[in-house]
Each structure stands twice: as structure tokens, then as C-alpha cells.
User: What shape does this take?
Amino acid sequence: MQARASGDSTCAAGKVARPMKQDNASHRMENELVWEERWHPLREEWVIVAAHRQNRPWSGETVVHKENNVPEYVADCYLCPGNLRVSGKRNDRYSGTFVFDNDHPCVDMAAPADLAAPPGIFRNRPASGIARVVCYSPKHNLSLAEIEPAGVEHLLQVWQSQYVDLGSRPEIAHVLIFENKGEVVGVSNPHPHCQIYATNFVFRTIEIEAAVGRRHFAETGRILFQDILSAEKLDGRRILCENESAIAFVPYFARYAYEVYVAPKRTYPSLAAVPDNELHDFARILHRVAVQFDNLWQMPFPYVMPLHQAPTDENDYRTFHFHVEFHPPLRKPELLKYLAGPEIGGGNFLSDTSPEEKAAELRALPAEHYKHSGKEK
Ligand SMILES: [Zn+2]
Ligand SMILES: [Zn+2]
Assistant: This one.
């Protein structure tokens, strides 16, 4: 598949990345056998890539997608404007974004602070925090992909202020912002929203990324994520799109078939540190990725999308490079990537697909959402 150079309306600089190493790329066959281990430098683990397995026969359960005919407003939706939530609180009649404290928090400041010590080698500690919900839009049926790019930029500003507000509190060590999208990742309500867990602890993946980045800087004097960006640009085959200051790519070490990273080109420890002009660029690239995901199978595309931002404890995170990760659970429209023996049992991901092929597939998709292009099925 070749990169599409036209129809690039949402990419600010109007530029679609093309493989830079044409010689190298042209020597490779379209469906080249990828059967190897690849090092994941941010997680410090090997990913097993066995791309020849993707077409193996499957006779198990498949995912069924419901008809996509969702109204703008749903009377019993706990996220729609003006509606009553189970807590008895009523949502504002909001017109843009809307932030509220989660009625069923996973973490809460009311968690016990004085814990009985467990026996022997076992350890425990208090788990407290603040859980919030951010509605992207008053419209029940408008996903991240269908919100205007300006609306996405506004959402980024809300994420910035939430990170600053929650992260500045002494009792908060980290602010995890994430969106779970789709029933296959456990979300039954399509109303576009994300969640925030601001906690007294740092989530494991962030802790590892921060430690690895710090060590890499001490050893080389370079930012680890910048080295990843350089290597992606040198290869070029996995870059989806870029503009002046932001870039999207399927990482070399992708664990999921359609895994995508969106990052500013310059290093900022958090989204909050990204200046306004670069936020504009970032919003366009993030939006474009969301549109291309929906366009892939012409259906709302499920994913888990965390923002990886530096912790807000007292440590130095100047080597942390903020980015957004998309982890889509589907390999095909009806097929889930199951986590099984290798992942759960052995602790290493086994990828059935070639990141180069998947990037080419995504890159070839139109930049306009299928619902707006008159090609809706
Ligand atoms: Zn709703
Ligand atoms: Zn990350």
C-alpha cells in the first residue's frame, strides 16, 4: 500500500510521511515475513512478532458490532447534559466539555490511611486519590473522531488544566488520564468521555518509562523518546502523519496490531507544558488518527487511550517525553486480540501482525471521517 498524499485536510502542515529510506523499503516485499523479537525500549521487554499467524483459522467467539444509529441525546444517559446521575447529582446543561467527580470512584481520598500491617514479606500502603470523568461533548453520539479539530484542541486544554489542578496537590503523585472506548474494552455507554485517576501512587508503566528515560539520559546524554523518534524517521515506514510539531506512528515495537503513538516532536514532560501553537498541531494529529481508526472498518473503533505524562511528585522528570498511546484490542473487525499464555502466562506480548503492514494500512485511509464523506455503508 502506498501513502496517500491527497485529502489531508486535518494535517496542519498538509504533509503525509513517506518512507525516507526508499531503497531499504523497496527491497522489502509487501508481505515480508516478520518473525522475530523486537525490543520495547520504554517498557524494557521483548515483543514477539510472528506476523505469519494473522490469518490462522479461527473458530471461536467473534465480536458483533451493533448498528451504529445512536441519537444525540439519551434520556437515561448519566453523561448527557441536564440528566440525573445515580448519586442524585444533576449534570450541568453543558455545551462544551463537562468535568465531574466520578460517582463510583476507583480511588478516593476517603480510602483508609491507617492500615494493619500484613504478615511476613507482604506489604501494603494506602491507595487514595481523586477520580473524575470528562465528557468531551454534550452530544451523546459524537466520538473523538467526529468532534471538530477545534473541539479536540479545547479538550486538550481541559486535560492540561486537570493535570495542573490535580497534580499540584501534595497528596497526588500522578495524574492518569485515559479513554476506554467500545464495548470490547468494557464501555457500554458510547457518550464520548474519558476518566482521570489522580493518585497518591504512580502507575507501573509510567514508573518504568520515567526510570528508563532517566537512566538513558544519564548514560547517553539523550532523551530516550527522541531516539525513538529519530529511528522512526530514519525508517519511515511506520509514520502515519506529522506536521510542524506533532507526529503519529505505529511504533517498531508495537504490541497491538493497530497500536499508535501520538507525540509532540519536542520533549515536554506533560501535556500541560506544551505551548499553545504546538497544542494546535497536536490536536490535528490526534484527531486525524482517531478519524483513520474509524475509517479502517467504517465503524466506531475501540481502544484504550492513555496519556503518558510525568508524575507530579517531587522527582525530576525533565527526561520524560509526554505522548498519547492508542491500544486497540481488535485485530480484525470481529476478532479480539486475546491476552493468553504468552502475555498473561509468560509476561511477553506476542504480536500476530507486522507493524509496517498495519501502518501502511492506516496511512492509506482517508483523512475525512466516513460519516462525513457520503460513503457511509
Ligand atoms: Zn449521553
Ligand atoms: Zn508510554
